[in-house]
Design brief:
Layout (H helix, E strand, L loop, with lengths): L6 H21 L9 E3 L3 E5 L3 E8 L9 E9 L5 E5 L5 E7 L4 E4 L11 E5 L4 E8 L7 E9 L8 E6 L2
Antiparallel strand pairs: 1-11, 2-3, 3-4, 4-9, 5-8, 6-7, 6-10, 10-11
Length: about 170
Amino acid sequence: MKGIFDRVNLRRFIKYFIFFFITVLSSGCVAEPKHHISRKHSLALKVSNSARVGLSVTYHPSDSRQPIGACLSVTNLSRKNTIFQLSTKKFFDFSIYRKKGEKVWQWSQGKTFTETKTEIVMAPGETKSYRISIPSNIFHTGDYVLKGVFLGTPLLKPEIEFSIVR
């Protein structure tokens, strides 16, 4: 029985990781160094056989009142078109938790989405990015976790831990 880190799987992982990193760089979803936010992770990703979901965060150090930016990127890793089935027009969601688990904010809260079956078709290697702004007034000094989910792949939920220092 082959191990999970045999040569073929390791090469495949490295190839996908490099491809994802280049894709994220070219899509503008990479966090830049910031002064007011202490990051433990600036980029997080989850990978399956057919998709990769990445999450990044940005912050504006010159003005702590500026919103925090978040970007969720989804890449089709298969060699053929992939169809993601969704039950609503809500394709993604973001949420912020305190490190101890208390939910502070959720992007979709208070929004309404059409309840209609939706298909998202992605070509091989295609990446879709979803960007949002998070209001900075929800944060106090402390440790937080940003979670992102693409609802076509609900089991792939990258997280970024970060600290706000004022």
